[in-house]
Amino acid sequence: MRGKKRSDLHAVEHPLLVDARGRPIRGGPITRRSFVKTSGGILVATALGSACAGADASTLGTVKVTITGLPTGLPDNGTAVITRTDIAGATPIDLTIPAGVTTGDVQVPAGTYHVVYTPPSGLQVNGVNAFDVTIVAFDITEVTVSVSAIATSGTLHVTVTGIAAGAATGGIAVLQRTDQTASPVTANVPQGGGVDTVVPTGTYTVTYTPPSAHSLNSGITNPQTGKVVTSGATTTCTFAVTASTGGAGVPGNISNHDFENNTFGPYTDGGNAAPPGWTIGPDAAKGNLAVHKTTGIGGSGGGLNINLNVGNFALYCRFAHKQDANADNNFEQKICRFQEAGFGGTNNPEIVWNAGSSNNFGIFFGFADASHVYSPTLNLPAPTPNQYRGQWHWFEIFFDYTTSGALVGRLWIDDVLYIDKTINAPRPSANPFQTAFLGGTVNSSTTQWVRHYDHIGWGTNKMGVPPLP
Hints:
The protein has 1 helix and 37 strands.
């Protein structure tokens, strides 16, 4: 590529050394060292090799390299390698463009040359950086290269389908970089179901939490791992959800009982008898009747057992629950536990009230996770048992053991999601959830108080909760 040329210089009668503009320089014949002049006015002595050895000044022209798009603060602005191509074995000339200037030039004998520019680290060439030029004596031949910063970030796009038209949000996606230590990035998904987040290049795990009254569709992987974000590119994660049908407080599609008929319905002692110690009476979350049991000092067992007569690895339970105001924190109560056939097995995930005899709620995945209890991490600050005692509140729990190595547990209180946890643990049994109980063992209570349950539903879809009375 040829650029602007200066042809207004006059020939001289005798060979002289001249500068880049063709002006005479005092001195003797040209030697193996000549001067390279940058556009900033800096004279740098450089070896030009045999290409200029003994050259007649009247045969010299100038190669000028101009760079656009350079940022400030670089140690230098790149290097151009200029190689003569019409003479075999010519030594290449390295032209380094100093920091603070955007052009460099060098005198070379007339001939044909190949010019290749290499930008500084962190920059990339936009377009062409290699040129074949013909140098004419006394002329300036200019090549121009455009550069820009190499992109160091890309975009993670989260798409969610199935969000109801009236939903306030589309849920939350947490983007966690896994190829190096980094803080998680939270992306709030709009009701429309799509959000772009610019993140540093790297590998990510994306964990999605559906909005209230929505559940993740069966077969959808969550979290999605190994999402690689490259420079300037977009990586997509897709999730699908289903909104609860029928509005807030829909019945469970497996079982639903509200005790308004003054019976325990499907709830037993695990056999054919009524649950021991439980009574049906007034003080209900909705309606007139609920079930109640007095907890003695030192604790007590005997929950509301149900045989679900189905085999599912993904199951929801929704219920209203209350502890009397005089209950303390010196105990741990299993509020709801999922079990295998025969009310046994090692799955046994559950909601725990006062986990570790402290003032908190938690979920427990059973022996699959070494009995670890997970506390709320979403929509903080989360409520505590102390705040809830003496009041009816609605709980909904979801456990999904479909995929071994990705066990899912979620807890909503009053239809607000406080826990959404996926653990890397094996499914401990091939048997699905078939039985369950509520109001199980209370350990080490130091006072006597009453626990209450109402409107218990079981299903394969999220049920939501009715408004509080």
